[in-house]
């Protein structure tokens, strides 16, 4: 007769095995939660970066301090857990079946890296300023200003030209200049300069500049292009010119300097003059708008129908000297330069239209 004795396990051993099993479960749980957290962090990171870039410099110091401290603490706590998770995965007895097929997406997403500064380009046969501007996605004026081109035809094969990274101006900082003074010089909002991600500052909190550094000014416009003075065309104002007919050639409506040219987002010519001189009718015609009839950004304005399919608009006027329905001769005073409506300083906004089409005034002015 055989007698079986019940084997009694050491309580300490049982406790150790249970504790080991619990630790393994806890390690697996935290590893899964950690991977989920990393995935969520990557998804939300771009949103945070975009927000910080928009107001770059304001939150730099507290963000760095808090971020580095947080990363250090998270790394300190998760290092042993990740180590255990890797070891436990290495000891796993699961084997993937060989009958399954793993499909991979062979399409590679191509990321186009934006240009962070000025690059050089050697003009090839058949190149034009227009084709080069289109190739590098900048405006024709940007290339003309950057390379001091007298005209859009002033290039030849083999010539080396500079290509700014974006439509606008590239400015070399002088002693005493600030982001605000540079923005004012090129008629842009200072925030546009700050938002350009490749501009750097000697102090990221105050956006201080260092003499000699290069600053990209997106959408900046070259200042101080002095126009021909049209004073000899000034005529004494008449209440009504009677029967008139357009000459077909436009004169400069005011003296001053070009503060902004015609571009796709600015469909007219801005002529700045702080002395607020008289504005002249660029050609003969009938007044169809006079004053500020709505809340539009043009402010006080005059529109003249020249009877040949073309109309001209004169905006931001400080005063209007004509009335709707009257006729004017080429060179008649129609008002004075001002800064009414959406304007940051005394200037004339001048447009030429054909029906609903906006035309570049510089193609018509004589």
UniProtKB/TrEMBL annotation:
Which positions, given as ranges, span the membrane?
63-82
Q: Which SUPFAM superfamilies match?
A: Duplicated hybrid motif, LysM domain
Q: Which Pfam families match?
A: LysM, Peptidase_M23
- Keyword terms of this UniProt record: Membrane, Signal, Transmembrane, Transmembrane helix
What PANTHER family does the record point to? Answer: L-ALA--D-GLU ENDOPEPTIDASE, PEPTIDASE-RELATED
Xref: InterPro entries: Cell_wall_metabolism_enzyme, Dup_hybrid_motif, LysM, LysM_dom_sf, M23ase_b-sheet_dom
**The protein's name:** LysM domain-containing protein
Sequence ranges assigned to domain LysM in this UniProt record:
119-163, 169-217
């Amino acid at each position: 007769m055989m007698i079986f004795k019940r084997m009694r396990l050491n309580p300490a051993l049982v406790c150790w095995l249970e504790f080991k099993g619990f630790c393994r479960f806890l390690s697996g749980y935290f590893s899964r939660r950690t991977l989920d957290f990393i995935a969520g962090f990557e998804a939300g990171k771009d949103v945070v970066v975009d927000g910080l870039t928009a107001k770059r410099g304001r939150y730099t110091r507290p963000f760095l301090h808090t971020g580095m401290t947080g990363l250090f603490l998270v790394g300190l706590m998760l290092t042993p857990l990740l180590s255990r998770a890797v070891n436990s995965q290495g000891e796993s007895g699961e084997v993937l079946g060989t009958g399954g097929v793993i499909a991979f997406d062979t399409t590679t997403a191509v990321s186009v890296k934006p240009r962070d500064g000025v690059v050089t380009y050697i003009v090839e046969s058949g190149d034009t300023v227009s084709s080069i501007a289109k190739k590098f996605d900048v405006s024709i004026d940007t290339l003309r200003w950057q390379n001091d081109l007298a005209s859009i035809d002033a290039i030849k094969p083999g010539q080396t030209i500079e290509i700014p990274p974006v439509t606008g101006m590239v400015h070399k900082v002088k002693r005493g200049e600030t982001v605000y003074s540079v923005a004012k010089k090129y008629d842009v909002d200072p925030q546009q300069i700050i938002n350009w991600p490749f501009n750097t500052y000697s102090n990221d909190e105050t956006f201080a500049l260092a003499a000699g550094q290069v600053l990209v000014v997106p959408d900046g416009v070259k200042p101080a292009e002095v126009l021909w003075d049209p004073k000899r065309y000034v005529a004494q104002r008449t209440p009504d010119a009677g029967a008139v007919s357009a000459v077909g050639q436009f004169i400069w409506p005011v003296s001053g300097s070009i503060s902004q040219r015609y571009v796709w987002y600015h469909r007219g010519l801005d002529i700045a003059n702080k002395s607020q001189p008289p504005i002249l009718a660029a050609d003969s015609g009938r007044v169809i708008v006079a004053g500020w009839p709505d809340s539009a950004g043009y402010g006080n304005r005059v529109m003249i129908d020249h009877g040949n399919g073309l109309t001209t608009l004169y905006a931001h006027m400080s005063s209007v000297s004509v009335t709707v329905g009257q006729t004017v001769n080429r060179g008649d005073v129609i008002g004075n330069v001002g800064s009414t409506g959406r304007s940051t300083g005394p200037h004339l906004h001048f447009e030429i239209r054909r029906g609903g089409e906006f035309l570049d005034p510089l193609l018509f002015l004589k």
